[in-house]
Every structure is written in C-alpha cells, then in structure tokens.
Design a protein that fits this description.
This protein is α/β, with parallel strands linked by helices. It is built from nine helices and nine strands.
Amino acid sequence: MPASPAAVSRVDPFDAFGFDQRYYDRWIRLARVYFRWLRVSVDGLQNLPDAGGGILVGNHAGHRWHDTTSLQFAARRLHGGKRVVRPLIFNGLGKFPVAGHVITQYAGGVVAHPRNVEYLLDRDELVLVYPEGVNSTLKRFGERNRPCPVEQWGSGFVRAAIRSGKPIVPVVGYGFESTVPTIALSRRLGRFWGMPKGLYPVSPQALLLGTVPMNSGAIPFPVKCHLSILPPIHVDGRFDRDAQIRELVGAVWEVIADRLSCLRAGRR
C-alpha cells in the first residue's frame, strides 16, 4: 500500500521544486528585517484561508521584492494558520547565480507555468500571482501605486481557479515602488542583463550598489508601506469562455485599483 502524502513529507522535506520549509523559516527571518524597516502595516489578514489552497493575486512593485517578502512574513508570522506563500516567478529569474537558488529553495519561488500551479494547488498551497508580469518593471516613478492597465494582465490565474476550484484572494501592495524609485529605463543595461523587454529600471540604489538586478533592493528607502488583503472571490465552472474569463480578470483588476485609489487618497 503506498504511503500517504503526509508520511512522505515527513521523510523527505523537499518538494518537486527543491523547496525546503526549514529553509523558508530562515528566509522569513530576513523578511522580518525588511518588514520592520519599511514599517509595513497589514489589514484584512483574516481573509487568508486558515487551511486549503488559494490564489493570491496582486499588483506588483516591479523588480522590487519587498512586497512579496512582506506578504510572506505576514502570512507566516502574523496569521493564525502560519501559512507558506509560494510566489510564481518568470523562468529567467531562477537562472541568476546564487539568487536563483535562494528564490527557489529558500523563498519557495516556482516558475510560472500552469502545471506548476496545478501541482501547488493540489497540495493546498497558497500561490502568489502577479498578473502584470514583466510589465510592472517598466513603470516609472510617476506611475507608482497604480496597477498596469487591465489589457496587460494575464488571465492564467482565473483559469487556474476554475480548474482547481480554489478561491482568488486579491492582495494590494502600497508604497513599495517608492522604496526603490525608478528614475530612468536603460535599454543598454536591459540588454546586458537580459531583462524582460530589454529595459533595465535604473534607481538610486542601482547607481550606488551596482547594476546587478537583485542588488538594487538590498537597501530600500524607509518608506512606510501597506498591505491590504481583500475578501476572497470564489469562481466556478460558469466562466468557461474567453470573454467571461477576461470579464473576471477585469473585476479583480477593478477591486485592486479601487483599493489603491483609496490608499492614495489617505496619503499625502
């Protein structure tokens, strides 16, 4: 008789992607440093499921990773369920020397592919998706705290929710783009580092610490940031046409955009 999944997990702590939860708790210690440095406040933490899978969908601060680590810290340390959040990453990010290993084995990053998402949801994991994709890295400082246009959003998270029956949980990050502000977009550096769409977001930190993409987020400005976790959206098989799927993508986008607008109104 084959062993149960729980028994297997006790014998082998690694999953199919090489992720080890023991290393994840070490990663959370680093996330706590940035969480406190940026004075991140969180609301709606009760909207995260205590158990079972879910698809967290949010706006992204581009090449900055503090919004992801802050959400991971909040879910692991502040939420009663002590949940692990598995962010989806583009394939090129996992290939960076050292950083790629840390992102996959310590931070739980998984290459964004439908089969990988299906694997995680079948294991009742929380999957973090940024539908803006690489478009979020091209936003200038004046476009901060605003989601990319809905036309640039992918629809894979809706299809994954339909197939798995898991809820969509909108997550709003505010202020993270100001921690490492983009002052210019360099095509030469973008081509050199193999950045998506061939553009490198130049920030003051990049000028001081070097242009290695992961270095720019090492010393963010101490801007006060906020995370808002909104009520889950349950999807069923009625959304089976492309037009209906795009309509639901627009509904999620609108919820996130409205919350960002409210947060902007409350700040100077």
